[in-house]
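Lecture notes, part 5. Sequence design as translation. It can be helpful to think of inverse folding as translation between two languages: the language of shapes and the language of residues. The source text, in structure tokens, appears below.
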């Protein structure tokens, strides 16, 4: 399903642009597509929860010792894996990784905030393929250009030309921060 929506959201010169020209309806389509993909991911986790390393809550005895005293809820708990983006285990894992890096290398010296400018030339160039479009109508294009700009900034920071050599400038620290 994710691949289908990714295919449909691509801009092609040989296809009609009805979907892409929908402005707010296009944005609603993207939100609905994300919700259905996320629902599919959650449904998979629910159906396969016993196979996804949830052995810490196997029995009723374990559940009661963990603090689940309502017997109606025993056996109905779904434990989201750490690989599910946004789950509590995912957030705790990223926090623990970041704290381990800080413990080894020390606290960070810089806090960099990077914002997007909808008037960037790259955004204007990508919107020029469909006449009359504005940046607020195409969040997919804006986010792609923003991601490319962030990757460019990270590569410049890793080279060490501005602030010197980075002690913890491996890709792991940028992955923890959600930068690809």
């Amino acid at each position: 399903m994710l691949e289908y929506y990714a295919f449909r959201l691509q801009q092609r010169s040989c296809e009609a642009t009805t979907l892409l020209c929908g402005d707010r309806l296009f944005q609603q389509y993207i939100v609905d597509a994300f919700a259905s993909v996320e629902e599919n991911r959650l449904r998979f986790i629910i159906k396969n929860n016993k196979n996804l390393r949830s052995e810490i809550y196997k029995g009723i005895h374990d559940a009661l010792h963990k603090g689940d005293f309502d017997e109606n809820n025993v056996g109905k708990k779904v434990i989201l894996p750490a690989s599910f983006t946004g789950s509590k285990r995912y957030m705790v894992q990223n926090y623990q990784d970041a704290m381990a890096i800080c413990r080894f290398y020390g606290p960070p010296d810089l806090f960099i905030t990077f914002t997007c400018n909808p008037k960037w030339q790259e955004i204007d160039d990508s919107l020029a393929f469909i006449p009359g479009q504005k940046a607020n109508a195409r969040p997919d294009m804006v986010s792609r250009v923003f991601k490319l700009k962030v990757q460019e900034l990270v590569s410049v920071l890793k080279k060490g030309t501005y602030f010197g050599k980075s002690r913890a400038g491996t890709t792991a620290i940028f992955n923890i921060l959600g930068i690809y």
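The translated text above is only one of many valid answers, since several sequences can fold into similar shapes. The helical segments are 2-8, 24-47, 60-65, 88-105, 121-127, 139-159, 171-176.
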